[in-house]
Amino acid sequence: MFTMLHSQQADGYKLWLKYDKIENSELLNEYAEIVSSIYFKDDNDILKNAKKEFSLALPQMLNKQVKYSSNISSDNSLIVDVYENLPNDLKDLVGNDIEVLTDEGFIIKSLTYKKKSITIISAKKNIGILYATFRFLHLMQTHKKLKSIDLVDSPKVDLRMLNHWDNLDRSVERGYAGFSLWNWQKLPEYIDQRYIDYARANASIGINSTVLTNVNANALVLTPMYLEKVEALANVFRGYGIKVYLTARFSAPIEIGNLETSDPLNPEVEKWWSNKVAEIYKRIPDFGGFLVKANSEGQPGPQNYGRNHVDGANMMATALKPFGGNVIWRAFVYSEHDDTDRAKQAYDEFLPYDGKFKDNVLVQVKNGAIDFQPREPFHPMFGAMKKTPLVIEFQITQEYLGFSSHLVFLPKLFEEVLDSDTYQKGKGSTVAKVIDGSLYGNTLSGIAGVANIGTDLNWTGHPFAQANWYGFGRLAWDPDLSSEKIADEWLRATYSNNQDFIEPVKNLMLTSREAVVNYMNPLGLHHIFDTGHHYGPGPWVDNLGRPDWNPVYYHQADANGIGFDRTPSGSNATEQYASYLEKTFNDINTIPEEYLLWFHHVPWDYKLQNGNTLWDGIALKYQEGVNDVTHMIQTWDNAKPYLNDSEYNEVKMLLQIQLKEAKWWRDACLLYFQTFSKKELPEGVEKPTQSLEYYKSLKFPFAPGIRPQWD
Ligand code: GCV
């Protein structure tokens, strides 16, 4: 059971599962009545964990012990059990609602049973009961009325997955919250309480799959010594409905199998993978499958043998199929031998394969065509690839968003992408409908988020980064949820239900994403981060091995203007979108201004919609970003009365770092772009305090998230 030392009360470890005492007496009475006598069947691990959560949460929230009965009786005020165990008269009362549920869905309903008002929590399967338990407790934590509740809910997406980019040495690629949670050295014997609390937190928001290892994979994890450790983790996670996946290094047959090749069409290689899969399922009968990064950024893959992505993915899919496992094949590919605009390459490479993958292959596509930028138009593969289930990959860890020192509420970004209309099957063909499978009737669907979790006491480095983990899970469950609702839920469960606190701080969260766009990459600028570690600005970087690793490739600033021409006069990446969008993006008069410099090379004197020249507009946007952070600090200061000292101080200190770095971004980028525009900063933009040479001289060989490089 999850316990906490008193001195750690405000450390953020409890996440959104704090279960604070309900102070409002009316609500307290209502809740106490609802749970006055509970029937809660717990004859298996999942139900035991669900009931444990009740036993932890209710005494804390209601400040009294709760009575459980071992049989259903007329005394019960709350009945919790799967549908098939319910007495027939109760089945009759809820039958229709149960029918519409998926295997993971649940109902929470008030009804009259034997002339008495009761609440029932039921589901088709045990996992539905666990999800319902967390939702029920969350509704209490967030002070929702439960007296006449009528909730019927099922997840809209099948695979709701975290991708950990965790290495076996416990470093985390692009991780900013300490080391990897997986203590490989002490596994399998030592089960850290963190594994259990990690699983609880995920289950509470409906996450049902986790990929334990980095996509830049190490084959060792597939050896017996590590599989034994993976098995131990899977045994913990199973009780919370979470399946384990591993990343499969394509060259594993050579590296750990003593074969001379990894050619996917070689019978020895096929046999090796089939045996390996059988070995894994012997240990982990509900193993999820493999996530594969192949022929991307130097990783081995089928192309090393003259084969293609379909050959590679289908070979692994064949091995996994008898056990019900999936292959998740990443489409994050771009080649140093191809000078086509990097934004076009994945679409060009994968579209011809549509319909050729086996039915247990999903193709995982990043939300945008470059790489998790503060703002990108949605990836053109969404909607275009009609016969292949696409998993959308979001990055919860903030590689390009200020690491764990910037407060950026990412559900706002996720929502923008999911709500984007691809127009691929007429108006209303949103990315969300592609992902939940409803647009083309896919039988499998998935959402993946690159985790922002590590060994930091508060799990995510920044207390508000917890909201990004939380929000990812909620959107994976229901891609149509609004970011506003998610912020509201999270704030209530994490900090306070006081409306005077919620409203301004919610507003702070909802505006934080636009702030980071403004002070880092306004008006469609992208990938102008410093080299390798991606910490801070580096628009001047032009000396990396591949053109498309250099910021100068992306902004294309020159004496005439700035921006990447992706219209027909340039790379013509716009042709990868449905014709309505293609036209909208091609025309400088119709393109949404937030994507202007993503698709157009624009003269410095070009007039923006508000009448400013482009140069003035860029400069004012950078300043606006800095001003936004100043407002965030003011809002946080005003919220102080609702926070304890440590809660207030930790975010305040982080916001001050964010302000300093927002100014750094503004000054470094404007000084550099000014060398091309040759124009003065407009009124209202603060003058830089340092020279361009100073900003260029800054080096961060030990920035977190990558292996240190000192040259
Ligand atoms: C795991 C970007 C990141 C890499 C990451 C890669 C990927 O290039 O900078 O750290 O590698 O994306 O998603 O595969």
UniProtKB/TrEMBL annotation:
Superkingdom, taxonomy of origin: Bacteria
> What's the protein called, per UniProt?
Xylan alpha-1,2-glucuronidase
List each copy of the Alpha glucuronidase N-terminal domain by range: 15-136
Task: Please give an example of a GO cellular component term from this record.
Answer: extracellular region
Task: Indicate the secretion signal residues.
Answer: none
Question: Which top EC class is given?
Answer: hydrolase
Q: How does it assemble?
A: Homodimer.
Can the keyword Hydrolase be found in this entry's annotation?
A: yes
Q: Name one GO biological process term.
A: glucuronoxylan catabolic process
Which residues does UniProt mark as catalytic?
Answer: 297 (proton donor), 371 (proton acceptor), 399 (proton acceptor)
Q: SUPFAM superfamilies given for it?
A: (Trans)glycosidases, beta-N-acetylhexosaminidase-like domain
Tell me, what is one Gene Ontology molecular-function annotation carried by this entry? alpha-glucuronidase activity
The UniProt record lists the Glycosyl hydrolase family 67 catalytic domain at 140-459
According to its UniProt record, the EC number is 3.2.1.131
